[in-house]
Specification:
The protein has 2 domains: 207 residues, Periplasmic binding protein-like II (D-Maltodextrin-Binding Protein, domain 2, 3-Layer(aba) Sandwich), CATH 3.40.190.10; 96 residues, 3-Layer(aba) Sandwich (D-Maltodextrin-Binding Protein, domain 2), CATH 3.40.190.10. The two termini are 26 Å apart. With 312 residues, it is α/β, with parallel strands linked by helices. The N terminus is likely disordered. The longest helix has 17 residues. The strands form 3 sheets. It has a 5-stranded mixed β-sheet, with helices on both faces. A 5-stranded mixed β-sheet has the order 9-8-10-7-11, with helices on both faces. A two-stranded antiparallel sheet has the order 1-2. The protein is 38% helix and 22% strand.
Length: 312
């Protein structure tokens, strides 16, 4: 059982729990596995399991890499064999896999929508989303969530999506610089991650745009998946056991607020809006996402559900 304690946590009988639940699956030789994700509060369950030794206990050396550049960068890392697993935005990885089927989605990680904040510089004259039509959108890179959601937001507001202009800024720090220097006009990023920047006046948030689908999935390089299905399944078993009880961990709100430098009330609101998943992406949802990407001319061809979504 995981017990929170302000900014820290401890584990009661974790080894006993792991041995009793996963004993038959323990790997006899330590297996190193590379995993990547954004340095955001959604991924705290992974860090808890790593820091509590839960993967090590079953013979998995799970090496986490923070990727502040986001989904576009993680797609490149999967393609180039720089990571084995990525916790990645659903629409971004589906887009990438329609072009190059290098990896597979093996599970939804967060099934609730991502709430994208639409931000402008704190001193900008813009006050509403409608002010941003035909303006320059700062994006981390092509194929990133900030890139794809710029199209979704434009369609939502009945803008001509062919008129969107982009400025590549790499990451959140790049966006701050780009907006303040007037190289771009607005930037879309997860609203709670950027909330401290709104609070201190660096950004103004003029609107929100939730994804109309589950926000994060777990993607695995096909070569790794084909050779290590038992390892992937064990990783999923362990992380799912944690996400199932994550919200019930005492003081988890304080732990999150401390670790991610957030106000307690913001984290509490975020927790009410966030749901983790222990199931894979279903075909109906996959079709909805892929059809939307096609309608927006973000993808030029569609892939079969079974080509992209696989059972570990």
């Amino acid at each position: 059982m995981l017990l929170g304690n302000g900014g820290n946590w401890k584990v009661r009988n974790t080894k006993l729990k792991i041995r009793s639940k996963f004993t038959s699956k323990i790997i006899t030789k330590m297996k190193q596995v590379r995993i990547a994700g954004v340095p955001e509060h959604f991924n705290l369950p992974w860090h808890m399991c790593i820091e509590n030794g839960e993967f090590n206990e079953v013979g998995i050396d799970l090496q986490w890499t923070d990727v502040p550049e986001g989904t576009g960068k993680m797609c490149q890392m999967l393609r180039d064999n720089e990571t084995d697993i990525a916790i990645i935005l659903t629409e971004g990885i589906i887009k990438d896999l329609t072009e190059n089927a290098h990896s597979s989605i093996v599970q939804v990680f967060v099934k609730s929508p991502l709430i994208w904040g639409i931000h402008v510089d704190g001193k900008a004259k813009y006050t509403t989303v409608s002010d941003l039509e035909n303006k320059v959108s700062a994006i981390s890179r092509l194929g990133s969530g900030s890139h794809l959601m710029s199209f979704v937001n434009a369609e939502k507001n009945n803008w001509n999506t062919t008129n969107i202009q982009f400025e590549i800024v790499n990451n959140l720090d790049g966006a701050i610089e780009s907006l303040s220097e007037g190289k771009s006009d607005y930037f879309m990023w997860e609203k709670y991650t950027t909330k401290p920047l709104v609070d201190n006046g660096t950004f103004k948030r003029v609107g929100e745009c939730p994804t109309p689908w589950p926000c994060f999935v777990i993607a695995v390089r096909n070569e790794f998946l084909n050779e290590n299905k038992s390892v992937v399944n064990l990783i999923l078993d362990i992380i799912n056991a944690t996400t199932e009880e994550f919200k019930q961990i005492p003081s988890i709100d304080r732990t999150l607020a401390t670790r991610y430098h957030q106000k307690l009330e913001d984290i509490q609101q975020w927790l009410t809006q966030t749901q983790w998943s222990q199931k894979n992406l279903d075909e109906k949802t996959f079709d909805k996402i892929q059809n939307k990407l096609s309608d927006l001319n973000i993808i030029s061809k569609k892939a079969a559900f079974t080509q992209i979504v696989k059972k570990a």
